[in-house]
Fold:
Amino acid sequence: MGPNRMPRRDWLLGTGASLAALAGSANVATATALRQPEVRATQTQSAAEGEDADRARRMKWWHEARFGMFIHWGLYSVLGRHEWVMEEEGIPVSEYELLAKRFQPQPNAARAWAKLAKSAGQKYMVMTTKHHEGFCNFDTKLTNYCAPKQGPGRDLVREYVEAARAEGMHVGFYYSLMDWHHPDGARCATDPEARKRFVEYTHGLVRELMTNYGKIDVLWYDVDWPLDAAGWESQRMNKMVFQLQPDIIVDNRNGLPGDFSTPEQEIVAEKGSRSWESCMTLNDSWGYQRADDNWKSPKTIVRNLAECSRDGGNYLLNIGPKPDGSIPEESVRVLAEVGQWMSRNGDTIYGAEQCQVRHSEFAGFTRKGSTLYMHVHFWPGDTVALAGLRCNVKSARLFASGQPVKFDQERFRVRFTGLPSEAPDHPVTTIAIECDSEPIQDTGFVRRERPRNGV
Ligand code: GLC
Structure:
């Protein structure tokens, strides 16, 4: 078997098994002539290349998608004081458990989530199947603390999966390893028998999730307290996941690097070619928090999304449905406005390539080939200027309307002129700027070279 025919999971795990398989390959005749360390180096390199190619294949849709919806929903939604309420108010398990009966959502609430996601321009969804509280929103044979056997009386994850698919969304599952309810959830750190039981329980739940709902596109592990990757047996867990779901992508919160990084509540690009997704709340809470009125504006969301896109990342934006499953009105309002903007400007976000241009105090940037998209969020008036562009502008237009924009370019700046005094689009206006090569900005050049005079 040649390196390209290696079973996929062996590439992924880069295990001894994959190297052993290589050693048995047709390359061996020539390879044995080489010194051992060189053989190993070559094998490791081809294994890494195989792994990269496979990852690129699995992640293609996700890179194109750019924008996803995160959904935090569980027993904490009933209290409406954030998903950490159990720990942060020190609620005893026996008291918290009573919420399981009180959680009685409307049927198929997820349909409205999926419709809203679609209209917002989001292409995938990730829902909490089990958060830190330990309650399973799905049907499981492993605990009675799950939706079908408690207040909801049915499998909420199934409803979500069906709703998401009906709107053409890719389907993701969030799963918290940390568990505040299970008796072994903390003592697994110090009691070997408890660890074994809890790892079996955890792998068992993940197995059910990966088996019972058809094709799942994302597995989003969260908080690995109190164990590490070895303690969770994360290699074995991922191997099972990939066996059951060969096309899935997994995040990095089970102690292993996985396929992508997960900066939280901030936009921080990964170095090199590593994939990343910034997850963020619409207010300050993931789970429903009735009194949290600190909503981000549609403008902030559009700016954040464009910033992720500029740096090659994804944006996973959260909603925290109420206990009945309905979406807080303010979330609906913000996402609807973002969706309207995306319907006019989405082509400057989806499929955008990494963009080096970034210096402006009133605009952000994305890029496709040699076209620069300047996303102006604080509209300066009839002239919009940009410094240090090291390429020639060929033409410019307002992206949404297609209306041509006049410009003049000098050595240190380009100015777009004759524009309306009020912003033509809301909450952000996009100017498409055609250049003669990939747009690169050098503000250092401006600072050093711009002629000075006098003292
Ligand atoms: C943190 C929080 C959690 C939330 C998650 C989303 O890990 O513990 O409540 O689900 O971030 O990224």
Observations:
- The chain has two domains: 54-348, 363-449.
